[in-house]
């Protein structure tokens, strides 16, 4: 594993920046307080820690103006702990960078010139400081290196450092000499106003109507077939339009400033002269517009049918909670596909999480929805886990009180029913239920409000609006059993499918959990003074005080009832039981051998 890890890092040319070199790099910046910085190959953040005047021991808010790219996803957690925003994986694939005032990095040595040139091309107005192999500058053997040398000669400087990665605190040492390249790029802000104002000195006959005659409402673009490419094309068109609008506004302000104050302003003693926009103003405006459009683009993907159709409402909430991280990535076809592939690759985890969400929603509020059994796994506290399973016959979910005058189900009710439709369709192997709970509820809402029992593919449903309870009657016990087993295995109450329990008693107590439920509850009540179901309600909340005591009490009650019904539960898997049997036989043979000799 370590060899594989090291090979991967060698492939990425991972050489963390020693702190002295990092500090030296940041001191190269003329602007000691850049408004927004991009680190294009951030690693674990070693270079970032060399920033000048670190406050409060690298508090997260110190790096709040830092964006970064990092191709090795194993480093992303370290970067997020620092408080930086990860906006992409492959810096060389980035398409927008006009919002940055500095790009500072330690790129891979084998293609450092590509990273420096990419940074230069992305910047609109700002500085580039990069660590590259000294030979990259000393021996310009290709066109890219020659272009880099030309840029250094015209726009910057270079400092050579020997032994920078051989110091004591270097995480990975190398004898390579390095060059710190510093480039300064200044936008031609004045170019906004360089046109010849005297070019057409004819009388102005253009009115507002004529000025607006060239504008029409944008039509839907003629876009590629792919929906993802459509969205990226629309996004790029929006970015271009926003950039043009910002440039145009900057030009308009500059020209207005040249004209001076209006007569009204001069007469009143006030000044309304517009000033020529600064590069920082334009950069901030571009960054704000770009960030807003990028968030809109990612929101459209996250909420698209292709994603939401695979997620329950709780799973979707988890995705939306992580949306801030997702929306920091560039809105490109590659990144969108990577996100969607990630959703697909995690389908197994997403599906089991969805089933666990459904299970918890059913068992959370009503202990009567649940039957109990002794779980297969014990924990470090040496008490056995208590397994729970949903009843086959009926379960009740509260919290939906409405008046008789309500014309339709509440949004919360529809969300719950939609989650059940998705989850039980998954358990049934269907793409979707033939008659969904949502459609049945809406089609028969009037009857449902007055106590009618309606049918859907997987459940009969009855609603009591006064107390707000939904009563579900499963139509197929096998689906409930599949849910119980899937969640039981996920939480360690049941053994994995590839493990065989030696004793039939374990599965007997699991199968009879609902049948023995009344006896089990009486046995629990004997062990608890107070509300008889308090230990059972506590089982669903591991963080509650008394959870361990509740597990022990319920386990004792289960053992008592099982013994009364002659159910002997053996928690060993078959291989363990056979091994123990072989050891017992071997011990018995060794004990008998001296007796045989004596005979």
Automatic annotation (TrEMBL):
GO molecular function, one term: methyltransferase activity
Lineage: Bacteria, Pseudomonadati, Pseudomonadota, Betaproteobacteria, Burkholderiales
GO biological process, one term: methylation
Protein name: DUF4942 domain-containing protein
Domain DUF4942: 293-492
Gene3D superfamilies: Vaccinia Virus protein VP39
Coiled coil: none
Pfam families cross-referenced by the UniProt entry: DUF4942
InterPro entries per UniProt: DNA_methylase_N6_adenine_CS, DUF4942, SAM-dependent_MTases_sf
Stored PROSITE patterns: N6_MTASE
């Amino acid at each position: 594993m370590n060899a594989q890890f090291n090979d991967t890092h060698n492939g990425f040319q991972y050489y963390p920046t020693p702190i002295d070199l990092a500090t030296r790099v940041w001191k190269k910046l003329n602007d000691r307080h850049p408004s927004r910085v991009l680190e294009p190959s951030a690693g674990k953040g070693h270079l970032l820690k060399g920033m000048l005047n670190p406050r409060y021991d690298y508090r997260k808010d110190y790096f709040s103006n830092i964006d970064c790219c990092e191709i090795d996803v194993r480093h992303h957690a370290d970067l997020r702990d620092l408080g930086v925003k990860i906006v992409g994986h492959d810096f060389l694939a980035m398409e927008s960078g006009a919002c940055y005032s500095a790009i500072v990095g330690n790129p891979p040595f084998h293609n450092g010139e590509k990273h420096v040139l990419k940074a230069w091309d992305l910047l609109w107005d700002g500085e580039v400081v990069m660590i590259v192999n000294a030979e990259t500058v000393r021996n310009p053997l290709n066109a890219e290196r020659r272009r880099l040398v030309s840029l250094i000669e015209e726009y910057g400087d270079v400092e050579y450092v020997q032994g920078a990665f051989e110091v004591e605190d270097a995480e990975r040492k190398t004898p390579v000499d390095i060059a710190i390249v510093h480039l300064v790029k200044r936008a031609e802000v004045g170019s906004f106003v360089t046109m010849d104002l005297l070019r057409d000195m004819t009388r102005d006959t253009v009115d507002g109507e004529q000025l607006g005659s060239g504008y029409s409402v944008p039509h839907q673009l003629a876009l590629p077939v792919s929906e993802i490419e459509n969205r990226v094309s629309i996004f790029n068109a929006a970015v271009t339009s926003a950039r043009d609008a910002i440039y145009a506004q900057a030009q308009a302000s500059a020209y207005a400033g040249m004209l001076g104050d209006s007569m009204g302003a001069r007469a009143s003693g006030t000044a309304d002269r517009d000033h020529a926009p600064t590069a920082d103003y334009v950069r901030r405006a571009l960054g704000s517009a770009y960030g807003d459009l990028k968030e809109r683009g990612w929101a459209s993907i996250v909420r698209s049918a292709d994603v939401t159709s695979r997620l329950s409402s709780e799973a979707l909430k988890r995705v939306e909670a992580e949306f801030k991280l997702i929306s920091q990535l560039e809105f490109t076809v590659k990144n969108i596909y990577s996100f969607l592939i990630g959703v697909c690759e995690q389908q197994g985890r997403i599906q089991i999480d969805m089933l666990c969400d459904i299970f918890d929603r059913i068992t959370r509020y009503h202990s009567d929805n649940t039957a109990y059994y002794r779980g297969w796994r014990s924990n470090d506290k040496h008490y056995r886990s208590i397994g729970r399973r949903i009843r086959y016959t009926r379960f009740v979910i509260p919290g939906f009180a409405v008046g008789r005058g309500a014309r339709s189900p509440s949004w919360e009710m529809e969300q719950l029913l939609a989650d059940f439709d998705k989850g039980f369709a998954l358990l049934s192997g269907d793409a979707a239920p033939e008659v969904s709970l949502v459609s049945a509820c809406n089609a028969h809402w009037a009857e449902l409000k007055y106590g009618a029992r309606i049918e859907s593919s997987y459940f009969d449903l009855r609603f009591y609006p006064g107390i707000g309870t939904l009563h579900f009657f499963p139509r197929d016990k096998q689906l409930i059993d599949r849910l119980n087993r899937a969640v039981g295995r996920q939480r360690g109450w049941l053994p994995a499918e590839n493990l065989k329990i030696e004793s039939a008693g374990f599965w007997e107590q699991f199968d009879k959990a609902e049948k023995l439920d009344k006896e089990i509850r009486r046995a629990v009540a004997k062990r608890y003074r107070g509300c008889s179901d308090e230990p059972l309600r506590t089982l669903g909340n591991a963080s509650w005080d008394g959870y361990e005591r509740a597990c022990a009490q319920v386990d004792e009650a289960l053992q008592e009832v099982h013994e009364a019904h002659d159910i002997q539960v053996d928690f060993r898997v078959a291989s363990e039981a056979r091994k123990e049997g072989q050891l017992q036989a071997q011990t018995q043979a060794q004990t008998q051998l001296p007796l045989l000799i004596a005979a």
